[in-house]
Amino acid sequence: MKRLAVLSLLLLFSTITYAQDAPLVPAKRDVSVANTEEARMKALEEQVRSLTGEVALLRVELKELRETKSPEQPSGPQVLLASSSVEPGVVPSSLAPAVPQAPQTQTFGGASGNAKLLNPDISLIGDFIGTAGHNDVAPGRSLEMHESELGVQAIIDPYARADAFLSFGETGVNVEEAYVTFTSLPAGLLLKVGKMRADFGKVNTIHNHALPFIDRPLVTNNLVGGEDGIDDAGLSLSHFLPAPKNWFLEGTAQVFRGDSSDVFQASRREDLSVVGHLRAYRDLTESTNIDLGVSYARGHNNVGSNFLTNLYSGDATFRWKPLRRAIYNSFLFRTELFWSARDQFALAIPNLFQTQHAFGMYSSAEYRVNRRWTLGGRFDRSGHATNAHLTDTGFSGIVTYWPSEFSQIRGQYRFAHFATTPGDFSNANELLFQFLFVMGAHGAHPF
Amino acid sequence: MLRIMATTRITAIASSFALVFSLLFPVGGSADSKIRIMTATTDLASLAQEVGGEKVDVESIARGYQDPHFVDPKPSFLLKLSKAELLIAVGLELEIGWLPPLITQSSNPRIQVAAPGYLDASRFAKILDIPTGQVTRAEGDVHPLGNPHYWLDPDNGLRIAKGIQNKLSEMRPNDAAYFVQRYDAFEQRLKQSDQQWQAQMKPYVGRKVVTYHRSWPNFAEHFGLNVVGYVEPRPGIPPSPQHTVELIGQMKREGVKVIIVEPYFDLKTPNSIARETGGVVVVLMPSVGGEKEITDYFKLFDYDIAKLKKAFDQTH
User: Fold this and answer.
1) Would you call A242 and B132 a contact, using CB atoms and an 8 Å cutoff?
2) Alpha carbon distance A52, A379 (integer Å)
3) With the CA atoms of B113, B119, B123 and B127 taken in that order, what torsion angle do they form, in degrees rounded to the nearest 10?
4) pLDDT, tens digit, for every residue of A212-237?
5) How far apart are CA A154 and CA A33, in angstroms?
6) CB contact under 8 A, A185 and B107
7) Considering only CB atoms, which chain B residues are within 8 Å of A284?
8) Which residues of A touch B103 (CB under 8 A)?
9) I need a surface site. Which of A170, A194, A386, B95 has the fewest CB within 10 A?
10) B236 contacts chain A (CB < 8 A)
C-alpha cells in the first residue's frame, strides 16, 4: 500500500516536471519564433512577478485572518466537522495560496458563518392550543400541543431546492410537505415533486402556524378535507402566463395519487386526482393590491372508484400595507368560495346514484393596529359534502399579540351553528387560545 | 362506464398540462441589449447604475423608505425577476424573509443563489457587528453574519461598485472597458464628495448619538460618530418603557442630544425621549429614494449629512 502511494507520488511528480519542461523544448529548437517566444516569456515573467506580489499580500492577509480566528479554533465549529474524514474548514488553509478566492477576506470572519456549512436551514414551530366552552359536534381538546412542525430546507444542487415539513402532533408524525423544486428548468417552468399542499385556493396552501386564525374555516372541514386539506404526493408544474399590462398571471397544473383526507381516496392505482389553479395578481398602488384565483380539483372519493368529487373554488384577496409603516399597520380582506359536486348513493334510496352539490365559503379580515396587535374576524358558511341540505354557519373574532417576530399569542372567540340532521341543530360557543413559537432558521414571511 | 371515466381522467390530466404547455413563452435576451438588473435595495440599484451606465436597466425591489427587513414578496416582482439577468442582493440575511421565495418562484435559472447572475454585495464590503460567541435570539433579531446595513459607508459603496464592475465585465466582456471607465469616474467623484462630507462632519467627530435600529454602524465609523444607545431594546423588538427610561437616563448622563431614526419607524417614542432630554429627533434616510430628492448614492449622503449637521447645530 505504502509502496503504491510512493509510486503514484513519483509518477505525479514526473508528470509535473515534464509538463513544466515541455514548453521550453520547442522554444530552444525553433529559432524563427524565438523573438515572439521571448516576448511571451517576458510577459509571463511579468505576470509571475505580479502574482508573487499578490500571493505575498494574500499571505499577510491570511496570517492576519488566522490570528484573529485562532482563539476560537479549538472549540469552534471545527469540532463539529471532526467526524468527517475531510475537514472542509481546515483543508484549504493547508494549501495556503489556494484559499483567498475572494480577496475581500474581512467579511467572512465570524465562526457562525462556518457553523452553517452545508447544513440545511432547520426550524421548529411549536403550536399550542387551548379550548374552552361548549361544542357537541366537533369538540377540541382542552389543552393540546397541537403540532410541532419541523422544517428542513436547503438548496440541493445548482438546479433544485428542497423543503420538508414534518408535523409532530398528539397522534403521531405526519409529513405535511416534502418536495423538491426544480428552479432551473427551461422555458420558465417550475416543477415540484413530492408531497405537498395542493394549489387549491388560498387557505389550503397555508400551514397552520401561518393562518390568521387558530382553527380552519368550517368550509375547509366540510368540503376540502379538514385541517390537512388536499395534501398529497404528486407533481406540480407552474408557469407565468402572458397577461395584460400590470397583471401577473400564473397557471399551475398538478397530479396527485388521489389520497387526501376524506375528500379524495384512490382505491386503484389509476384513481389519480388533478388540481388546476389560475392566479391573477395586480398592484393597485404601491401599498394596495388584489389577488384573485380560480381552482379546480377532481378525484375519486371514498364511496368507490366510480364515484368522483369535483371541487371548484374562487378566491379574492385585497391587501393594504403602507410601505413607510409596513411593520405597524396593514389590512387584509379575503373571501373564498367553494363548490363541491360529490358522486354518492342517494341518502334515502339505496343503490341510486346521485351527485350532491354543496356550497361553502368564508370571508375574513385582519387589521394590524400597531406593531404588536392585530384584530381579525371571520364569517363561515358551508353545506355538508354528503348532504347539501345541511348548512353550518359561524363567525369568529380574533386578537393576536406578537412579543417579537418569533412568537405569537392569539385568542379567538368562535360561534358555530351546526346543522346536525334535517330540522335539528347544535350551537357551539368557544374560546380558543394559542401560543406559537419559532426556533431556528428565519423562515419566509407569509404573504 | 369505467372506460369512459378513465378516458375523461386522462383527458383532464392531459388538458391541464396542455393548458400550461401551450402558453409557454421562452424569454430570451440578445447579447447586445442592456443587461437587466434587479437589486434588493435602491442603494445597490444606484451603484449598479453608476457602473453600468446606459448598458444596464436597473430596478430595485424595495423602496428607499421601506424597512428592508420586511418587504412583501409580491408576485409583481416575480415577472421582473423572471426576466432579470443579474440579481444583486444585500445578503447577510437582511432579505431572508422575502427574497428566497421570490428567487425560487421566479423560475429563472440565471439568478438562483450561486448562479452566475446572483451577486451578494456583502462579499465585497467591510462588515461590522459580526457576533462572536453564542448567538441566540435573546439578543433580538440578530444577524449572525454581521450587520447588513453596510452600504452606508462610502468606502463600502466603492467596494460594492468594484464588485459590480467585475460582474458586469464578466457578463459582457465586450463592454468591459466601458464599465472600467464608468467605475473609475465614479471612484473619482465619490472620493471627492467624500472629502467634502468628511470636511462637513469634521466639527462633529466623536459626538455621541442614539439611533432607533442598528442601521448606522458603518456610517458612524466612517464619519466618526459614536453610537451609544438604541431606541429598540434589542434589534427588531419594539421600544419598552423600562428601556426607554434607562436610555433617557443614559442620554442625560452622557449629554447625548441627537436621536437618529429611520423613516419607517414610529416617531412617538423617539419624540418623547427628545422631550425628556432636550434633544432632537432627526429622520435620516438609510437608502436612496427615501425622499424624492435623494435620487442617487451621492445625494443620500448629501441629505443625511445636511440633516445631521443641522441637528448637531441645533443642540449646541
Assistant:
1) no
2) 73
3) -100
4) 999 999 999 999 998 889 999 999 99
5) 55
6) yes
7) none
8) 183
9) A170
10) yes
Q: Give the number of C-alpha atoms closer than 13 A to the C-alpha of residue B214, restricted to the C-beta side.
A: 20
- Nearest Cβ partner of A239 from B12, B23, B263? B23
First to last CA, chain A: 60
Range of the domain at A383: 123-142+210-226+242-440
Q: For residue A186, give every residue at least 6 positions away whose Cβ sits within 8 Å of its Cβ, in sequence order, or none.
A: B26
Q: Tell me whether B97 touches chain A (CB under 8 Å).
A: yes
Q: Are the Cβ atoms of A161 and B13 closer than 8 angstroms? A: no
Tell me the domain boundaries of chain B.
Answer: 35-195, 198-314
- Residue A99: inside a domain: yes
Residues in chain A: 447
From chain A, pick out residues whose CB is under 8 angstroms from the CB of B1: 306
Alpha helices in chain B (DSSP H): 2-22, 42-52, 75-83, 99-105, 154-171, 176-201, 217-223, 241-254, 268-277, 297-314
CATH number of the domain at B35-195, please? Answer: 3.40.50.1980
Q: Are residues A259 and A309 in the same domain?
A: yes
Name the CATH topology of B198-314: Rossmann fold (3.40.50)
The secondary element (H helix, E strand) that includes residue A92 is helix A91-94
C-alpha triplet B68, B273, A373: angle, nearest 5°: 50
Q: What is the mean pLDDT of residues B231-260?
A: 94
Q: What DSSP state is assigned to residue A120?
A: P
Quick one: cell of A196? Answer: 405537498
Report how far apart the first and last C-alpha atoms of chain B are (Å, whole number). Answer: 91
Asked if pLDDT for residue A408 goes beyond 50, the answer is yes
A286 three-class SS: coil
Instruction: Decide if A405 touches B, using CB distance below 8 A.
Output: yes
SS3 A218: helix
What are the CA-CA distances from residue A113 to residues A76, A295, B100 (Å)?
Answer: 11, 43, 18
Per-residue pLDDT of B36-94, as tens digits, reads: 999 999 999 999 999 999 999 999 999 999 999 999 999 999 999 999 999 999 999 99
pTM recorded for the entire structure: 0.80
